[in-house]
Each structure stands twice: as C-alpha cells, then as structure tokens.
Amino acid sequence: MSSLAWIDFDEAERQRAQRIMALFQERETRDELGMGAIRDSIADHLFPGTSTIQTRLRYMLFIPWLYRALEKREVPEAQLRTEARDTEIRLADALKAGGESNGIIGRDAGPRLQRLPSSVYWAGLGAWGIRVFPGSLDSLFVALRGRGRSRGASSGEDALAGAQTPAVWNPALPQMPGDLLEHAVFRLTTDEAQFLIDRLIASQPTALLTMLAREGIDAGCDYIWTHPHLSAFPSAARRLVQHGEIFSHVMHGAALLYNLALSELRQRDDWIEDYRARLGAWSDELDTGAVRAWSLDDFWNVVEHPAHAVRPAAKRFISEWRDLVLAGTEQVISAPAARRLVEERERRLKTSQSRYANHAVRDRWTGASGADRLSFRWAQAKSHLRDLAHAE
Q1: Which domain of life does the UniProt lineage start with (predicted)?
Q2: 365 near 262, Cβ under 8 Å?
Q3: Nearest to residue 58, comparing CAs of 209, 212, 184?
Q4: Over the stretch 243-291, which tens digit does the pLDDT of each residue have?
Q5: How many domains does the chain contain in total?
C-alpha cells in the first residue's frame, strides 16, 4: 500500500498540488498526448472557476450555506469533519426530496460518496470570490478548530489568534433557506443569481463567462465557437475562442489517430472501422486555409496562464503535427511520420505505462481515450449560464 504525505509547502503550492491530484479523477481530463495544460489554460481564461465535474450552479451557494452553519459548532476537528461529510450527504437526500434527479452529487452513492460537493466546488468558490478564506478545505477545518479553542481560552494570546482568523465567506452571501436539508432544489432565486453575477463581475471582470452571465445569455450550442453571439464577444475573448477552435480541431486528428493505432494493436475491426470513419470526417471538415493562417506564436501568447505551464515538448509536438496536417490530411491516417509522432509522444509521457509498449495496459484499454474534441469546459459553463438565466 502506498501513501501520500504533504511536505510543508506554502499554501499556494499545497492548493496547486491538490488541484492537480483532483484533475486525475475527472473523466474528461484524460490527457493521453500531453495537451492538458493548454486545454486548461484556455478553459481558465474563458470560464474561470469551472471544472468538468461540476453539475449545477446552486452548489456554489449550498457549500457556503452548509459550512457557515457548521462554523458555529464548538466541537473537535474530527467531529467537525464528520458532521460536514454527513451534512453534504444529507443534501443529496434533500435534493431528491425536492424533486431533483439530474446533477445531484452523491445521488446513488449515498454514504459511500468519495468526492464530496465541497471538494468539487472549492476552487471555484475561491475563483468567484464567494470564498474569501484563502486556504484549502483541510486548512479551514484546522482554522475552525483554532477558533473553537480561542472561544474557551483564557489567555490573551489565544483570544488574539482567534480574532485574527480570516473570514470564510463573502459577507453578501444570501441567507440559507431554513429547510435546506429537508427539501432543496437547484433553481436559483433572482437574488441568488444576482449575487453570483456580482461575484463574477468583481472577481473575474474580463472573463467571457462574466460577460455572458451579466448579459443573461443562454445558448444551447455544442461548442463556444458556434455561439450565436460570437460576433458580440469582447475582442480578446473572441480571439481566444478562434484560437481554441483551430487548436481543438487540428489536435482532434492526433487523438483519433492514437485511438486508431491502439485499435489496430488490439485487432478490433469494429473499432478500426469507426476511427477510420471519424478520421475521414475530421479531414473533410478541417479548414486547411484557417490552419495555414493560424499563428502559433500568437496562440502561445494568448493561452499563457499563470496556473499552467506549457512545456517546450508540447509546443514542438503541436507544431510538428500541424505541419503534417498541412502536408495533407488524407495521408495522416497512414503516414509513417504522423503515426511515429503520436507514438513517440505517448511513449515519452507514459513511459512504462505506454499502451504501445505495455501489453497488459493495452489489454485493459476499452476503446476510447480522449477521443472527443476539446470543448474547454463549455458544457459546464453553459449549464451554469442556463441556471442563471432561469432564476425565479
């Protein structure tokens, strides 16, 4: 059995490490060819505070409501943690009692739930300025334990330490419904929606998500670059969206070729036929003129994000793949250079766990890895915007 122990990093490093660990648990963050930092940079610019495992927007209020009530409990830290977990599990039952069915975290798992809503939304709560406490969820429990000690302490030093404990939630947070843990719904009230919009405006003023939320724009398109209001986006956002569209489309071919190669190694004729057809559709739909005009230098400038470091090897891979695409998409399926580029990239990233080299790992492959186009969390942003637009 292996275990992880925290080295005493500063709080920013601790949160960054926790975020990276959490990403490995998200279904849509499969990054077989090392494009995750670029994907997440674009997503964090456009839709900050979102993640692929978020469901409904009112969790951005459920979590602070539940934890604000728990903050008043003067109990040991272990008991507080237990009560917090139990409360979050009770919330799932309350949502079912309220008539909700989709988007409930823990709907079927119940007490066996591994990923609590608080961990799913914690980073987003901070990014939107709803959570003003700067630390991790673990450090919050420690801080609350310190508060409890200070209340019962007689020494001036302990009382001062408690008084200096930072606030946890934005003071404008709406009031929690009195029956939240008996009967809960996902529909926002207009006051709650306005609070969330105000937080976005204050904390993420330049994000596309903020503009769409402020304008009450709800669109059902599959990709942000097919949005009906694309021409009205701020110029910086429109520029990034256009780069994202080309990047998503160009690199989708590499992902499909990777899946085709594995299907061939597994000798699965049905999978091979499917991926050949998908590569053919990819080739037909690709705008090679737009790819030829695509400035990678400008792309690297606009996607740069302080939370994500894009390695030189990733930049080389994308540049070399683009060159192969421009040489002729029809030949990409069979071109030795294209197949070699994808294989070498995966082998360098996965080393002993490479599906090309490790038969046991390949035999466990179920037929699809990162085979969908990158959408940069538009699905989650679209859901949140819909919740805002339909507040009552």
Answers
A1: Bacteria
A2: yes
A3: 184
A4: 999 999 999 999 999 999 999 999 999 999 999 999 999 999 999 999 9
A5: 2
Helix (H) or strand (E) holding 236: helix 235-265
Range of the domain at 320: 31-48+210-392
pLDDT of residue 146: 59
Q: Given the structure tokens 């009560």, which residue do they identify?
A: 83
CB 163 within 8 A of CB 366: no
Are residues 265 and 220 part of one domain? yes
In a domain, 178, yes or no: yes
Tokens for 202, please give them.
């204050």
Note whether 338 and 370 are same-domain residues: yes
Structure tokens at 167: 């606030």
The token pair that represents 14 in the structure block: 């601790």
Summarised one tens digit per residue, pLDDT across range 4-63 is: 333 334 444 544 444 444 444 443 447 899 999 999 999 999 999 999 999 999 999 999
Do residues 34 and 314 make contact, with C-beta atoms less than 8 angstroms apart? yes
Element (H, E) at 18: helix 11-23
Q: 229: Cβ–Cβ under 8 A, 6 or more apart, which residues?
A: 212, 217, 219
Residue the block writes with tokens 């330490």:
161
**Helices and strands of the chain, counted as H and E runs:** 17, 0
Cα-only R_g, the chain: 24
Residue at 279 is within a domain: yes
Look up residue 22 and give its amino acid.
Answer: A
Taken in order 20, 24, 26, 28, is the CA torsion positive or negative? positive
134, 10 in Cβ contact below 8 A?
no
SS3 track for 324-364: HHHHCHHHCCCCHHHHHHHHHHHHHHHHHHCCCCCHHHHHC
DSSP-H helix ranges across 24-76: 36-46, 59-70
pLDDT attached to residue 31: 87
